Amino acid sequence: MDIWLQQLLIGLSVGTIYALIALGYTMVYGIIKLINFAHGEVFMIGAFTGYYALTAWGLGFIPALLLAMGVSALLGVTIERVAYRRLRNFPRLAALTTAIGVSLFIQYTTIYLRGAQSEAYPSLFPNRRLEILGAGINLDALVILAVSVALMAILQFIVQKTRTGKAMRAVSFDLEAARLMGIPVNRTISITFAIGSALGGAAGVVYGLYYTRIDPLMGVLPGLKAFVAAVVGGIGSIPGAMVGGLVIGMVETLVSAAGLSLFRDAAAFLILILILLFRPEGLFGRHTTEKV
């Protein structure tokens, strides 16, 4: 029982990382119906920003986290302004292929600038373990869980209780009607990209803290799994992205604990297939009617 409780805590920590990344996908899709496949590279840039802040610049964990979030937010806004804004009224396939191109551009620009070698993230809490109901867990995992939950709570507050959040919800519901009502649509979309990218950058830092190794191609697989989490929860739904990330993290951890670690990645995509077959709108999604 202690072992399974320990795996549960680990699964929650991993799941919150996926949830933070998935929130970036679902926020952007909810507001402009775009799958931002460059989001995995924003996550990667956040991880490297945190790494250099901790090692080269000697910052503490919280300043490094905030710096990574700021750099990632700036990158997300730049991507939206340069690559996506002009394609907003084009067919969705144009924006989708552009997103893939931006993703590859960031990956290989990073490799050109610093090389393809991986880096070892510094251990902030070496050999620190806590006992919870008889289950031992590293302090790193608890810090990741606490930071991720706090960031998701702040996001929920922003979306539900602030004027910016109301504007985001209005643009998500009907972009043209929001523009007619005087809502600054372009600024609202930029803020959405900034918030989603900042969460991706934070996910990069806590991912590096947990897995200890980062590299320029690290955003590919976690990005795909986070996209799966967003679809599982219901793409466009913020609570759905949170729950979807936790589901994927828990399933991966339990599959590994059962001795099937080779099938850990496959389990996430099996869940995607089952969701698309039996509930394509996701756990928190809604059926919509579209005129053609």
UniProtKB/TrEMBL annotation:
Cell inner membrane keyword on record? yes
Example of a GO cellular component annotation carried by this entry: plasma membrane
Annotated membrane-spanning segments are: 7-32, 52-78, 90-112, 132-159, 189-211, 223-247, 254-278
Task: Indicate the secretion signal residues.
Answer: none
Q: Which GO terms describe its molecular function?
A: L-isoleucine transmembrane transporter activity; L-leucine transmembrane transporter activity; L-phenylalanine transmembrane transporter activity; L-valine transmembrane transporter activity
Q: Which domain of life is it from?
A: Bacteria
Membrane topology term reads: Multi-pass membrane protein
Alphabetical list of InterPro entries matching this protein: ABC_transp_permease, BCAA_transport_permease
Keyword terms of this UniProt record: Amino-acid transport, Cell inner membrane, Cell membrane, Membrane, Transmembrane, Transmembrane helix, Transport
Gene Ontology biological-process annotations: D-alanine transmembrane transport; L-alanine transport; L-isoleucine import across plasma membrane
Major subcellular site? membrane
* Compartment(s) of residence: Cell membrane
PANTHER family with a match to the protein in the record:
BRANCHED-CHAIN AMINO ACID TRANSPORT SYSTEM PERMEASE PROTEIN LIVH, HIGH-AFFINITY BRANCHED-CHAIN AMINO ACID TRANSPORT SYSTEM PERMEASE PROTEIN LIVH
Q: Which family does it belong to?
A: Belongs to the binding-protein-dependent transport system permease family. LivHM subfamily.
Write the protein's name. Amino acid/amide ABC transporter membrane protein 1, HAAT family
- This chain's source organism reads Thermaerobacter subterraneus DSM 13965
Q: What is the lineage of its organism?
A: Bacteria, Bacillati, Bacillota, Clostridia, Eubacteriales
